[in-house]
Amino acid sequence: MYPPIDEAALEETLAVLERGGLAAIPTETVYGLAADADNRDAVLRTFAVKNRPTTHPLIVHVAGPEALPHWASVVPVEARILAERFWPGPLTMVLPKSARCGDFVTGGQDTVAIRCPSHPWTHELLRRFAGSAFKGLTAPSANTFGRISPTCAEHVREDLGVKPSGKLDAILDGGVCEVGVESTIINLSGARPEILRHGAVTRAMLEEALGREVPDGGSGAPRVSGSLKSHYAPQTKLEIVPADALAERLAALAPAPAAVMARTRPEGFENLVLFLEAPQRCADYARMLYRALHELDHAHAARILVEAPPADPEWAAVNDRLGRAAAEKTAPQQCLAKGVVR
Predict the structure, then answer these.
(1) What is the full per-residue pLDDT of the chain (342 aa) written as tens digits?
(2) Which helix (H) or strand (E) holds 194?
């Protein structure tokens, strides 16, 4: 459950965004770094604050389905069906962009990603911000590009912070995110619906709503947030290990300290400096995943070991995020991990 809306904090955040500032806002998935989607300078500052490539497109967050024709040039029937079923909620739809939507939002593409978040604080913020012009907010995750996404205000304060010592104009603290991983992204700009990022709205849910198969996107699909091989990554090297190989891997790492997340605690290892019990249910696991990765990363271990979750379709989002967290960083991301910004 989220705390009651703090009206003073909401109004302060609204004022920051209306004057072109940057604010971290809570959503049901992760905290986002919000800027007025019509304000080129404000949006470009989000890229600079995150050290995010400007070719990496952003999602426009809107107050409801009525905003779709103001941001998309074509709104297919599938988009209206999915908005009716899943909005507000953790589903992003990629559509042909309208003339209003700037290239600084879309990374130069002719498509735009749009979603309507369900967190009550941000849903109300968007309602007040939208006005008669159906304004929206870009809101990539409120963290340095490539690092672990924030699921509480403290994660944002630790990474980006608030001026004068930090980079943001405000942080709207709406509690801990209930979903915990980024939204599902479905591409509706092509010949068929296709999944570009897995999330809490599963393939089965999308297929049931649309009455047709929804495959993963191919190589010609639009670029979207969170699609790089290495993403959501702790600064400590992370490995995904099968349950029956966990003890052997811990032993091989000794005496180097290791932090572990697994369903059962390995016993008898002096180099085990932190153990977190992995939840059994997929929704619980997703909700705590980034919080756990932050905690494991703070354990001063030489390695993070995570027991491989189930491979069932329901776990697609969790396995996607863990796979990207474990991937080798690109050269710019390695520099970021060492505190060097290019």
Answers:
(1) 899 999 999 999 999 999 999 999 999 999 999 999 999 999 999 999 999 999 999 999 999 999 999 999 999 999 999 999 999 999 999 999 999 999 999 999 999 999 999 999 999 999 999 999 999 999 999 999 989 999 999 999 999 999 999 999 999 999 999 999 999 999 999 999 999 999 999 999 999 999 999 999 988 899 898 767 778 899 999 999 999 999 999 999 999 999 999 999 999 999 999 999 999 999 999 999 999 999 999 999 999 999 999 999 999 999 999 999 999 876 544 444 333 322
(2) strand 194-197
Q: Which residues belong to CATH 3.40.50 in the chain?
A: 238-337
Location of each CATH 3.90.870.10 domain in the chain = 7-210
CATH architecture of 7-210: Alpha-Beta Complex (3.90)
CATH topology of domain 238-337: Rossmann fold (3.40.50)
Q: How far apart are CA 31 and CA 113, in angstroms?
A: 17
Cα distances from 25 to residues 29, 197, 341, in angstroms, run 11, 21, 25
CB-CB contact of 260 with 277 (8 Å): no
Q: Which of 283, 267, 253, 224 lies closest to 106, judged by CA?
A: 224
